[in-house]
Every structure is written in structure tokens, then in C-alpha cells.
């Protein structure tokens, strides 16, 4: 179930340093507590820029207009907001064991001694379904597959129990089977923790299988936002219909339905 607004975005525009054209232009959108919102649109439409604005991850000289209004205190990245990037390498230090990275992150945000942090690290690796979590604590990032590294990056992102997790094309570099597994994991984590999920993808089918609501961006603007089923079954915008048609032609999986793991063969 989704609840009260977590974040209200009003007329937000973002211009990157050294550029003149807004990468996000006049976007208004609400993010509700506990919901899964998919942000879709083609490459360059402004999805990551919007996500970075929400996470406070834009460089200092970025020009920002309009408002981001949080319910409660302004959240801190890493503590209240978790961010998972397309390339898990961006979040993982190749020279540190997985256990050391998780313990460091946990102790930076929570009042835990080393032993308690290590127990919590192992529990997190269990939650993201990494095989043999105890052994994984002593291993290094290069010893894992791309999908496993992404599971570890997700464990790091949720370590401090954030209220919002942003998955920015987090499954795009993975093959289809692993992509479905990671998407199912993100759904499960958001459900069991009551954590809001902002899922960014250019894949409307993936969005439909995961999200409560879908927001569609095109050329820096938000062109459509609504319940996932409504956006997919009865899109109001020609651009959304184009995105759907492009996917239909690929004869892809059903667009709205149970999580991928629950679909019978
Ligand atoms: N670091 C940056 N400096 C300057 N301009 C940027 C930067 N990052 C993105 N942009 C510009 O902002 C616009 C929106 O890009 P953005 O990455 O937000 O789109 P996107 O929809 O997330 O695309 P993709 O799916 O390829 O990541 C593009 O014109 C892009 O060139």
C-alpha cells in the first residue's frame, strides 16, 4: 500500500554547469511513501538528472529552479536515500572486501560496534540473496558476476535502511534473466521494508511489471504520469503509445502482471 507524499516536486528545472538547455524542464511530480514509481523515457530525456536532483547528487554550479519539498527533514544521501547505479563498480571499492565495505557503510550511519555491523552485513547479503553470505564477506568485488555485484551494491544502498531507494538503470547492463531476478528483488525489498522505490528504466515492460505508477519523460519534460495499468492500457500521450508499440513489436513479456518469478512457464 502507498501512503502520504514523501516528496512533492513542483516546476523543477535543472541546467547542468556549462550548458544552457535544461536537462529537466518544469517537472511536477509527487512521490508517495512506500510506492514504486517507474520513471521511463528514452536516453537523454532527463531521467537520471531528475533522480540526481532528488538525491542531491548534482554538481555545485548546477542551476536549479522550482522546488523539492520533503515530508519531514531533508533526507541525506546514503542514510535516508539509497542510490543504485547502472554500473555496480561505481559503488564498490575493488580494493576492499565486501564485508569491510558494508561494515564501513553501516558504521558511518548507524551506532553499531564492529561485531554487530558484521552480523548486520551478513544479514543484508542474505536479504539480497547472495549465495553463501558468510564467505562473501571476505571476498572482493572481482570475485562476483555482474548480477551478484549489483546485489552487493543494493545491499550497500539499503544498509542504513533508507526510506527511498533510487535504482538508476540498475538492471540495464544485465542479461534478461538476471534483470528479471534483480527487478523481483527490488520489488520484494520495497514491499518488506515499506521503502519507496524510484525505478529508472527505458524499458516500459520492466516498468509495468514492477511499478504502481509510471511517469514518462521526453526531452526534459514529464509528458504523462499515472497508475501503471492506466498508462499501459490507456496512455493519454502519443509518445507513450509509441514506446508501447515499439515494445509490442519485440513481442516482449506481458506488460502488467505478477513479478517475473511468479509467472508460470
Ligand atoms: N554531467 C553532465 N554534464 C552536462 N550535461 C549532462 C550531464 N549529464 C547529463 N547531461 C545532459 O542532460 C540531458 C539529460 O541526460 P540524462 O542522463 O538525465 O538522461 P537520461 O534520460 O537519464 O538518459 P540515459 O538513459 O542515457 O541515462 C542530456 O542532454 C545530457 O547530455
Automatic annotation (TrEMBL):
Keywords: ATP-binding, Cell inner membrane, Cell membrane, Membrane, Nucleotide-binding, Translocase, Transport. Residues 9-244 form the ABC transporter domain. InterPro entries: AAA+_ATPase (IPR003593), ABC_Ni/Peptide_Import (IPR050388), ABC_transporter-like_ATP-bd (IPR003439), ABC_transporter-like_CS (IPR017871), P-loop_NTPase (IPR027417). One of its GO terms (molecular function) is ATP binding. It is found in: Cell inner membrane. Pfam families: ABC_tran (PF00005). It comes from the Bacteria. It is a peripheral membrane protein. Belongs to the ABC transporter superfamily. This is ATP-binding cassette domain-containing protein. It comes from Paracoccus pacificus.
Amino acid at each position: 500500500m502507498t501512503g502520504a507524499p514523501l516528496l512533492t516536486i513542483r516546476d523543477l528545472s535543472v541546467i547542468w554547469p556549462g550548458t544552457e538547455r535544461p536537462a529537466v524542464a518544469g517537472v511536477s511530480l509527487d512521490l508517495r511513501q512506500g510506492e514504486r514509481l517507474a520513471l521511463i523515457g528514452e536516453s537523454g530525456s532527463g531521467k537520471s538528472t531528475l533522480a540526481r536532483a532528488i538525491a542531491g547528487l548534482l554538481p555545485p554550479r548546477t542551476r536549479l529552479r522550482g522546488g523539492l519539498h520533503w515530508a519531514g527533514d531533508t533526507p541525506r544521501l546514503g542514510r535516508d536515500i539509497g542510490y543504485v547505479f547502472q554500473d555496480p563498480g561505481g559503488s564498490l571499492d575493488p580494493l576492499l572486501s565486501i564485508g569491510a565495505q558494508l561494515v564501513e557503510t553501516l558504521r558511518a550511519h548507524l551506532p553499531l560496534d564492529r561485531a554487530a555491523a558484521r552480523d548486520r552485513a551478513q544479514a543484508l547479503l542474505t536479504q539480497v540473496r547472495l549465495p553463501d553470505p558468510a564467505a562473501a564477506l571476505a571476498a572482493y568485488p572481482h570475485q562476483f558476476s555482474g548480477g551478484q555485484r549489483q546485489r552487493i551494491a543494493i545491499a550497500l544502498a539499503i544498509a542504513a535502511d533508507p526510506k527511498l531507494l533510487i535504482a538508476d538503470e540498475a538492471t540495464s547492463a544485465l542479461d534478461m534473466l538476471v534483470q528479471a531476478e534483480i527487478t523481483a528483488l527490488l520489488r520484494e525489498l520495497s514491499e518488506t521494508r515499506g521503502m519507496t522505490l524510484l525505478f529508472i528504466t527505458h524499458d516500459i515492460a520492466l516498468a509495468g511489471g514492477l511499478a504502481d505508477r509510471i511517469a514518462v519523460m521526453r526531452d526534459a519534460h514529464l509528458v504523462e504520469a499515472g497508475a501503471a495499468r492506466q498508462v499501459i492500457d490507456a496512455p493519454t500521450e502519443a509518445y507513450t503509445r509509441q514506446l508501447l508499440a515499439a515494445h509490442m513489436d519485440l513481442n516482449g513479456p506481458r506488460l502488467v502482471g505478477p513479478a517475473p518469478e511468479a509467472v508460470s512457464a
